[in-house]
Amino acid sequence: MKKSLATTLLALILILGFSPAQAETIRLPFNGLNLIGEFVLGDNRKPTDRTILVLHGTLAHLGMETIKNLQGVLKERGLNSLAINLSFGLNNRTGMYKCDVPHRHLYGDAIPELTHWLGWLKKKGIKDVTLFGHSRGGGQAALFGATSDHQLVKRLVLLAPATWNKQRVANGFKRSHKRPLADVLKEAHALVKAGKGKDYMKGTGILYCPGADVTAESFLSYYQPSTRYDTPTQLAKIKRPVLVVAGGQDKVVRDIAQRTKPIAAARDNIHLVVVDDAGHFFLDLYAEDVVDAMEEFLGGGS
Question: I need a surface site. Which of 23, 222, 251, 298 has the fewest CB within 10 A?
């Protein structure tokens, strides 16, 4: 996509980040914890105008470059955004989840936390929300869209959203954690069956954290074979408009464009845009391409 010199210079500034004064940090009480979010007001917009609710990827956070760049471009294009941190069961969680912190969070925890943030946006007077998710957060956003009928969410944007394949996951787990996934699943199932789902499996590892301590129920929530982790499967269940943005050079989620293309061809509410040279994180100027696609998808209005 062509970019003007002014837009390019703007994007270079955004790479360095935008002033904290432009972002309102929110601490939202939820089940005895504080959830953390940052609300950024779009240029020439009111706080009640339509808003993009932004969810990060695996064990990540709202301050990662992908999210900060996106919020900066959204601001300059006159779009409000609220980027949030999933709590992962921690109070006031910021930054990347540290692997030496025992894991008791569940894949599905994203659903009630997103719902709680939508309640906050509703109280703020916002009536139109686009749910945005990146990577695993895109998969969780798709699951939300497929299982929730929240009136505030009008559409979804999924950036390099996760896909799932049973054999691929098993191979990846063995490569990263040096144990057959089937053996660990058997151990976790036995603990849950014995009423010990909250017991830690010491040194088992999970996701990007080899050797980490993880509860049996947490492990199963991420590894029990299920199409709930698979964005294309969830797309078939979503009635709202959905934009999937894929990176042509994505080495993490390699098959999202290929698998979304026939769904988009068959269903009027599913749209696919491929940014040819972008990698999984859409760094630097690729945030502009993402927002270009989003603006076309959103159309006019406030």
Answer: 251
CA distance 159 to 280: 9
- The crossing angle, in degrees rounded to 10, of helices 286-298 and 5-15 is 110
pLDDT one-digit tens code per residue, 80-129: 999 999 999 999 999 999 999 999 999 999 999 999 999 999 999 999 99
Distance, in Å, from the CA atom of 11 to the CA atom of 69, rounded to the nearest integer, reads: 8
Q: Indicate whether 99 and 55 sit together in one domain.
A: yes
The pTM score is 0.91
Q: What's the domain count of the chain? A: 2
Contact (CB, 8 A) for 286 and 280: no
- Are 85 and 30 in a shared domain? yes
Q: How far apart are CA 37 and CA 62, in angstroms?
A: 8
Indicate if 53 and 182 belong to the same structural domain.
no
- Name residues whose C-beta falls within 8 Å of residue 43's C-beta, 6 or more positions apart in sequence: 75, 76, 77, 78
Give yes or no: residues 151 and 247 share one domain. yes
CA atoms of 119 and 179, how far apart (whole Å) = 42
| 12 and 68, same domain (yes or no) | yes
Residue by residue, DSSP assigns 169-214 as HHHHHHHHHSS-HHHHHHHHHHHHHTT-TTSEETT--BTTBTT--E
Of the residues 178, 199, 225, the one at which a domain ends:
225
Would the pLDDT of 223 be above 60?
yes
Tokens of 228: 């709930």
Residue range(s) defining the domain that contains residue 215: 165-225
Inter-CA distances, 103 with 99, 100, 116, 196, 222, Å: 8, 9, 22, 15, 11
pLDDT at position 302: 61
